[in-house]
Input
Amino acid sequence: MIKERYRRMWRVGVGAAVTLAGVLAWLAHDSEGQPRTPSPAKSAAGASSYMPVVTAPFDDIYRRLSAEKPDVMRRQRELLQARYDLGDRAVPGATMSRGKPVQGGVRVRLPDGVTWQQLAHMTPAEVKRRGLWPQGFLPLPHPKQAEGGMVFPEFQIREIKRQEARDLTRFDVDFDLPDHFLPEFPPPIFLTTRPDLGDVSRGKLVTVENYYDLFDGILNPKQLEGLRLLVTQFPQQQFNLTDDRRSAAPSKGVACLDCHANGHTNGATHLVGDIRPQELRRRIDTPTLRGVNQQRLFGSQRALRSVEDFTEFEQRGAYFDGDIVIATKKGVNILERGSQVQAMAEFQELLDFPPAEKLDVFGRLDKTKATPAELHGEQVFFAKGRCAECHPPPIFSDNFMHDLHAERFYTPEVIHGRATNAGGPVKTFPLRGIKDSPPYLHDERLLTLDDTVEYFNLVLGTELTDEEKRDLVAYLRAL
Output
């Protein structure tokens, strides 16, 4: 009797499962028998946090997005030209560590009929009411905000293709900012452990093809292993082996140093993985890794507590926009914390700032080496400009996060899919070697140090004179 009862229960269960399967199959198709397109769930905050995992055939996506690419880039160029003066105008005698000219001048375009000095004397409420906040001071959209993902400058793409025959070109979007506003390439590498060697890169971009020859005899075996992992490619949202990618051919992925070129930065951009919905996601500028041994916060807003946390987070989360479903599909690389992550972090912690010959051991200008303009700029930095309150020496960062509340100055709007909402707190980035790391602010909206000084002059209400602003820029270039 017991066996017969279990047989009846099994038959009922199978019947129920078959019926349920039939219902689910019916629900998944429309009245014409075609598969339904899943719609993201809605919440009070916006669309679903999860990205769709069902895609059209790759050939269809490739043809459609490739055809749309010229219009995508035209629209972004028009936005940049409306916001900025994009001309190539270097500062005489000012160069980065390996000699690339530094761009100068305020490039953000002012609204008609107003000057910088007039803006500086207005209250935030008045600027907002009159709609006078410069467009170049608003958040800068990703060149393709609705899609996002890693986008690399052309010079990085060419060199990786030459060395590794690996293509970082996207068929749907290109990098948008002109090369003369980006860091020098390839950047030099300075090590805290071997300052006697100066630039150890020998003028080369470090890749998986040459890292061993460049660093054998300089790094210990553990550090060499960490560097190997930093130049090894792993799958990423847009560069992977599946049909849901944005490279023409299946890709091995990207390496950490594809963005942090030579442990510094090449200006490559992305969207933060933490924020939803899509229109609120921030464009992010790749920060330099120089001086991470003296930093205590990582990620522009995440406040990760160690470079080990940052290293692990990037490959587990940021590589796939924080979506664990997509990560599993495309091949997430789970790093082993006790060996791989630690080795990668150990190498990163050797990366030093470039030499600053005009600074003394306390991070202050040597009066026998600095110009009068630089010395005056230092006074402004530590006094009227209030810069040192967040950027104290020796690395010129307080290792805290601050909210500037720039939204006081403008009415929120959506620009090319990017909502110009309140930004929230952002970590204080170091200013040592800052002339080597354009463009500025977390999303690359400020093309020059002159733009940066004008921005903070308005946001902080310091009302600097033209001479004070000019000398402050001169001082920043000396750091």
Observations:
- Residues 1-43 have pLDDT under 50 and may be disordered.
- Residues 143-348 form one domain.
- The longest strand covers residues 90-95.
- The radius of gyration is 25 Å.
